[in-house]
Amino acid sequence: MPDSTENHSGAGRRDRVPSGQHLTKAFPVLHHGEVPGFDPRTWSPRVFGLVDQSLKLTYDQVRALPSMVVVADIHCVTRWSKLDTKWEGVPFRDLLKLAIPRPEARYVLIHCEAGYTTSLPLEVLMDDDVLLAYRFDDADLTPEHGYPLRLVVPKKYFWKSAKWVRGLELLTEDCLGFWERLGYHNEADPWKEQRYS
Fold first, then answer.
1. 18-76: pLDDT as tens digits
2. Which of 26, 110, 172, 187 has a 20 to 30 A CA-CA distance from 124?
3. What pTM value is reported for the model?
4. Cβ-based neighbours of 7, under 8 Å, separated by 6 or more
5. How many domains does the chain have?
6. Residue 31 domain-assigned?
7. Is residue 185 part of a domain?
8. How is residue 158 annotated by DSSP?
9. Helix, strand or coil, per DSSP, at residue 150
10. Which of 134, 62, 72, 69 lies closest to 95 in space, CA to CA?
C-alpha cells in the first residue's frame, strides 16, 4: 500500500489558483516532439553524474520500488490549473538515496525522450511531494501524459514535470533545459508568475 501526502496551496479554491491562471477539469496534452513508443525490455532509466552508485533500472525494478500517492494542484505556464490531481510513483528522494548523491551535487538535469531536458535544484526535488510517477487518477499514465515515467514537481510550472524520463544527472552547476534555453524562466514558480525570463 503506497504512502500518501497532500499538497494544497490554501483552504479555498481561489486561494489555490495563482494569478493569471484559470481552472480546468480537463487535462490538456502539451509536449515537445512525438509521443514515444515504449518497450519494457529495453527501457532503462538511469541515475548518474555526481553519485557514488550509478543506477540503471528496468521497468520491473521501478515498479517494485516503494511507492507513494500525492494529491496536488498543478499549474501550467499556458495558464491552466487543475486541482486535486492524484499521482502515484516513486518518491524522488527515495530513489536518490539508492544512488548516494555526492556532497557537491546541487542540481539535477532531467533527460527525457526526443532530447528534451529540464533542470531543477536538488533541494527542490527532495521535497516530500516530488515523484517519479507512473500512475495518475488510479490508472497507469497514458502515453500522452508521460508513460512509463514522468517527473511530478507540483510547486513549479508544469513544464518542469517532464514526461518520458530516461535519466537523472546530478551536477554541481545548473544546466538550462529545453524550454529554459528558449526563454522560459528557470525557477518557474507559479505563485511569482515566473513564466518567462
1. 999 999 988 888 777 788 899 999 999 999 999 999 999 999 999 999 999 999 999 99
2. 26
3. 0.90
4. 70, 71, 72, 73, 129, 154, 155
5. 1
6. no
7. yes
8. G
9. strand
10. 62
